[in-house]
Amino acid sequence: MIQAFIFDLDGVITDTAKFHFIAWQKLAQRLGFDIDHEFNEKLKGVGRMDSLNLILQHGGISLTEAEKENEAARKNDEYVELIADMNASDLLPGAREALEAIHAAGLKTGLASASKNAPAILARLGISDLFDTVVDARFVINGKPDPEIFLKGAAQLNLSVTECIGIEDAVAGLQSIKDAGMYAIGIGDPAVLTLADTVIDGLHQFDLKHYI
Predict the structure, then answer these.
(1) How far is it, in rounded angstroms, from Cα 114 to Cα 135?
(2) What are the distances in angstroms from CA 47 to CA 18, 113, 199, 212?
(3) Which fold has domain 17-82?
(4) pTM reported for the whole predicted model
(5) Are 133 and 153 in contact (CB under 8 A)?
(6) Is 116 annotated in some ligand binding site?
(7) 75 annotated among ligand-binding-site residues
């Protein structure tokens, strides 16, 4: 019996990918190279430091750990500035309705996000009260595709993984869900999201009765 749905944030609830791309692109340009939208797809669902390492590898750049921390912090500051004006209009179609339907049915919701800014984003979107638990990069050792974040989400909801469904738009996130032992809903292209048990275009297509 399904008791909860655990959502990824970016690309599922809202779309901050454009802001991440701008901030990462600025970082790359400071270091003397560029990244494009095609490369940016590799960063979907990946944590900050892992994303930085992929970008540095792409540019053939080597930095000390201290330099990496400095660049990651600077990138995050620029990203936070970019998302400062987010509001409820930035919710993706169907997101609020899906969350409200789940709560109306007496079920629980969790968030499993690679972003340390997730709580602030939820507040700006006006949906903090629609989540029973939030697990972000501050609370896990291993980022996606490791299953830790979804395992912790289920644990914080006091549920087994078989009682939870994970919802993701990224391959790394779906790997995390499946390795956690959960049923996975993919958001996006079925040809790409082959790990998902079912795929929909977005939460505007989410129909709760199909899963409970």
Answers:
(1) 9
(2) 16, 9, 23, 31
(3) DNA polymerase; domain 1 (1.10.150)
(4) 0.84
(5) yes
(6) yes
(7) yes
8 known member of a binding site: yes
Q: Is 10 a catalytic residue?
A: yes
Closest CA to 59 of 84, 28, 82, 36: 28
Q: What is the pLDDT of residues 163-209, one digit of tens each?
A: 999 999 999 999 999 999 999 999 999 999 999 999 999 999 999 99
Q: Give 4-15+88-210's CATH code, choosing from 3.40.190.10, 3.40.50.1000, 3.40.630.10, 3.40.50.150.
A: 3.40.50.1000
Give CA–CA dist 46/145, Å, rounded. Answer: 8
From residue 63, give the alpha-carbon distance in Å to each of 2, 36, 68, 72: 46, 21, 6, 12
Of the candidates 10, 34, 77, 132, the residue annotated as catalytic is 10
Q: Does 48 count as an annotated binding residue?
A: yes
| Domain extent listing, the chain | 4-15+88-210, 17-82
Single out the catalytic residue among 8, 15, 90, 132. 8
Of 136, 92, 105, 103, whose CA–CA distance to 118 is shortest? 136
Q: Judge whether 129 counts as a catalytic residue.
A: no
For the record, the structure tokens of 85 come out as 């004006």
Question: How confident is the model over 70-100, as pLDDT tens digits?
Answer: 999 999 999 999 999 899 999 999 999 999 9
Phi, psi of 115 (to 5 degrees): -90, 125
